[in-house]
Amino acid sequence: MATSASSRTAAASDRGLNGGAGVLRVLDLFAGAGGLTAGMHSASSRFRTVRAVELEPEAAATYQANYGDVVHCGPIQTWLEQEDVPEADVVVGGPPCQGFSTLGKQDVDDERNLLWRYYAETVRRARPQYFVMENVPAFLKSPQFAVFTDAFASGGALEDYEFEARVLNAADHGAAQVRKRVVVLGRHKDASAVAMPAATHTPETYRTVREAFEGDGRQAVPRHAAELDLPPGTVERFGRTMPGAFKASDLHIGRIYTDLSLERFRAIPYGGGRFDLPEELEAPCWRKHRTGSGDVMGRLVWEKPSVTIRTEFFKPEKGRYLHPTQNRAITHFEAARIQGFDDDYKFVGSKSAIARQIGNAVPIPLGKALGRQILTAFDA
Do 171 and 255 lie in a common domain? Predict the structure, then answer.
């Protein structure tokens, strides 16, 4: 049953939210390493996570290392069965999107496509005033989006809510990368209106790779990545021993490359890619395919934002992930800088696990922009 506007206003007043002084309780679902939470916290210290849910133990441990013992590590289905969902002012999260992604094979029957339903069920139980859900742009054209929309109709699980969905580019909001994501911004019908964040940057003023690596008043990332392995140290989390916790600045770690890979890197000019390689250095598959993505084995450019940081940014054959001038892929530290993480943000896990956490995160500047919009709506 819908809560009346007067009762919701009274509850907000009891919490001290009116007037801009109170804590805003946040539920973070499919929380990953906490990128969306990091962005909202950078918008205001009033946001406070009361519970986070994350399936992957390493990502859950990273979240815990930064935000305390608020994490349920396991499937969201299990959490909904085992725990009472706490009341929250805001629910945020990004259900896994592999089944929708245009990268690789799409599968409309992929069970991960259905995980948004558990997100919706959490909203129904927690009864927040606002919620944020993010996904890949393909979600808007998927069959599941139509089912999602039906949940807001009369008699649906989210009939007390309304939403706006839009593709946002993180570069428009201060991230040093071009990364387009669908953002679903919802509100309870009794809550004040909330608008999508307006762009603060244009292609002429986008933050650049150089700014991410050498700007912001922070110490510049060294051009040379001297270390090859994670620093020593382990933590016990969720019944496992894991490497960590490491600051982002501890993760400027390189790789050992084959002589052939190094030859290829040296042959790729500034801003170039695989199409610049001489035939003798091309892989057989590249010789057969003269069209397609030029980002493979591509170099980033100092004067532009990065391409989207994905989970295998440490593999040059996966995209434009070569350093602008060094003959190597970007490091975990550099990828974290591009995503907007603070240098002292802590990560737990193996090198590949931390890379997944960084690549799957919502860029911090985009989370900050969304947090500001929600804060403005609460204070209206």
Answer: no
